[in-house]
């Protein structure tokens, strides 16, 4: 809901843009928000959203970590606007009572990279040769939180949902918005993708009209990244002090700056 103050800020948008370029990473209460796409007005995506939500035979459920709900780089709000059968559920784990659909234990898959000691996962290429699931589950959080959410949800998912991993290459360092047109935030290693891209890639495989749906979602993500990239400034690696093992001496290592624009 926009307030009168927001309206005034809308009028001042041009004057504020330079300031916003410098302060995009800080939370500004005055920053106008588009009431339709819920994104800051300078990066409004309405022009790129489909006129009608795209229908799918698959039901898509995104478990959205509570810390991420307000994050402006989250792709989940856009995803639920674009797909007629996508729903976001806020929480830290999937359990009975959270989603009436999941309570029925439908044939489902959930997207997360294979991790040591995790339940067996199949790849997208393997999924192509199986009967399509009726429900696709994704997790939207930082990687650390998502790993915890998956671990905490697996008891509930056991028996009806299969873990599916997009082919992730851990030997390749993760990219950032600066070196890929589809990555919004720093990813831990190569092949890690946003929730939206993971869902798009999977629908591309399991939907009858998959390639078209995938193209439309990826195109939208590309536009979202293009707009966002205009508000990011490259950050230099920053030195981080760590203790040298055993001697208590300090050595300097360089750590990639994980600050994000939000
Ligand atoms: Zn908008």
UniProtKB/TrEMBL annotation:
According to the entry, every stretch annotated as the DTW domain falls at 30-233
tRNA processing is among the record's keywords:
yes
Q: Which reaction does it catalyse?
A: a uridine in tRNA + S-adenosyl-L-methionine = a 3-[(3S)-3-amino-3-carboxypropyl]uridine in tRNA + S-methyl-5'-thioadenosine + H(+)
User: What domain of life is recorded for the organism?
Assistant: Eukaryota
Q: Is tRNA processing set as a keyword in this record? A: yes
Its protein name is tRNA-uridine aminocarboxypropyltransferase
**Record family assignment:** Belongs to the TDD superfamily. DTWD2 family.
What is an example of a GO molecular function annotated in this UniProt entry? tRNA-uridine aminocarboxypropyltransferase activity
Q: What biological-process terms (Gene Ontology) are attached?
A: tRNA processing
Give the originating organism: Morus notabilis
